[in-house]
From TrEMBL:
One of its GO terms (molecular function) is DNA binding. It holds the Pfam family Lsr2. Keywords: DNA-binding. This is Lsr2 family protein. It comes from the Bacteria. Residues 1-49 form the Lsr2 dimerization domain. InterPro entries: E3-bd_dom_sf, Lsr2-like_dimerization, Lsr2_dim_dom, Lsr2_DNA-bd.
């Protein structure tokens, strides 16, 4: 027994011989959708318009990302717990929790030259 596949336009629900899977890309991602010729034309025009705006726009990074990597790069091969433990034993004032001052990191690196992060 033969089966017949009828493609339906995902936008307007129309059926027709022109309805086909259409692939398109946006921001390095690929999508697929079933569209007839008219809706495919509308999609391509919208993508061209979007490209004009994307070419002039700046990407906004998510808040908080990047800051962590900057603080993690204060010392290489040691944890913040190691820095706090050393500071206490060396008589350097350091908080139990929260941000460790740049001065404490600098003193730790001076005492542990191998902890200096790669530039």
């Amino acid at each position: 027994m033969a089966e017949k596949v009828i493609r339906v336009d995902d936008i307007d629900g129309s059926e027709g011989s022109d309805v086909a899977k259409r692939d398109f890309g946006v921001l390095d991602r690929t999508f697929t959708i079933d569209l007839g010729d008219e809706n495919d034309k509308r999609l391509r025009e919208a993508l061209e318009t979007l490209e004009l705006f994307l070419a002039k726009a700046n990407e906004v990074k998510a808040a908080g990302k990047g800051r962590r990597s900057a603080s993690a790069a204060k010392v290489k091969g040691y944890t913040n717990g190691d820095v706090r433990e050393w500071a206490k034993s060396a008589g350097v004032e350091v908080s139990e929790r929260g941000k460790i001052s740049d001065e404490v990191y600098a003193a730790f690196i001076e005492a542990h030259p191998d902890a200096k992060p790669d530039a």
